[in-house]
Amino acid sequence: QVQLVESGGGLVQAGGSLRLSCAASGFTFRSYDMAWFRQAPGKEREFVAGINRSGDSTSYADSVKGRFTISRDNAKNTVYLQMYSLTPEDAAVYYCAAGRVGANSYLAWGQGTQVTVSS
Q1: What is the phi-psi region of residue 47: left when phi exceeds 0, alpha when psi lies from -120 to 50, beta otherwise?
Q2: pLDDT tens for each residue of 23-43
């Protein structure tokens, strides 16, 4: 079955960095767009970054442009989110998503990984 397993979350000080990973299985990874979303307590889930099947086209939320980088390794069935200059506003549960079918609609979602940023 389709599985998306995120890892790499944790506690980091403001200004620090983290790299999230999402290992995919159960589908042909290279055939699907991938994305990262996040949801902070009391807020709606929001788009963070997306990447196309080949990895040569990416998009970012304005709030993370210049600080976050999404990438993928189709040989490893893994998508990454490198995050720099983290702020407390970046604290959230980060979700990996596969197979874009609409603006913020994806076929499969991971369980999420918590990112906490201390000020």
Answers
A1: beta
A2: 999 999 999 999 999 999 999
